[in-house]
Design goal:
6 strands, 4 helices, about 20% helix, globular, alpha+beta, single chain
């Protein structure tokens, strides 16, 4: 399946304070409240087996590399919707998340994956998250779980809202130079709810980009 792109409405005012890579509480590492927005729709744990962080080669027909190091594991524990556009938007929302962490791992905001899966405020949000890690000289390690996903299409069929929960309780910041893993005390700050607006790329039927991102931190509904 080709990569797609969805519109994302990013709350940039809070984005600066949200750091995608950290999980758990604790003052010595960033918070994972910067996760990609998830909508307040539906819950229910999916029955599908978790999907590993890096997408397999056969699922990258557009040739976009969103691979991540083995110790940076993004698990997408959800089932794809039957609607073709919503399924494509959900897949590329996952790719958008991978692209952000790939940028953190590669220490750059100019990776090709970001150009493929982000636009507008979605791109600004992603760069904010990556730059926060670059400034702090942090990367990430552990497992970040994404679940309770729901989708909602706009009447025009050109945008899809992808909402989901994120559990960062086993996902930590790591100092690049020393390799020290920064762990805090598990708490509600490890749980976030994202809403990402995915928009269809104008010249592609299969690519969706994140255009806006909304994040609800300390999301009790995700516990």
């Amino acid at each position: 399946m080709k990569r797609r792109s969805l519109p994302v409405t990013a709350a940039l005012a809070t984005a600066a304070a949200l750091l995608l890579t950290a999980c758990g509480s604790g003052d010595e590492k960033p918070s994972d409240n910067d996760k990609i927005a998830g909508a307040d729709q539906g819950t229910g744990a999916p029955s599908k087996s978790p999907e590993p962080s890096g997408a397999p080669a056969e699922s990258k027909p557009d040739g976009v590399d969103v691979s991540l190091p083995k110790d940076m594991n993004l698990v997408f524990d959800w089932e794809k919707p039957e609607d073709e556009n919503e399924a494509a938007a959900m897949e590329d929302a996952a790719n958008y998340t991978r692209a952000i962490y790939r940028g953190i791992d590669k220490r750059t905001t100019k990776d090709a994956s970001l150009a493929a899966y982000a636009t507008g405020d979605g791109l600004t949000y992603a760069r904010t998250q990556i730059n926060a890690r670059l400034d702090g000289d942090w990367t990430a390690t552990g497992t970040r779980r994404h679940y309770q996903a729901t989708t909602r299409s706009a009447p025009t069929g050109t945008s899809v809202e992808v909402a989901f929960c994120v559990d960062s309780s086993k996902f930590y910041s790591k100092e690049v130079k020393s390799g020290k893993v920064l762990k805090g005390t598990p708490s509600i700050t490890d749980f976030d709810h994202f809403k990402i607006i995915m928009v269809k790329y104008p010249t592609s039927d299969s690519l969706w980009q994140a255009s806006e991102v909304y994040v609800e931190g300390k999301a009790a509904k995700c516990q």
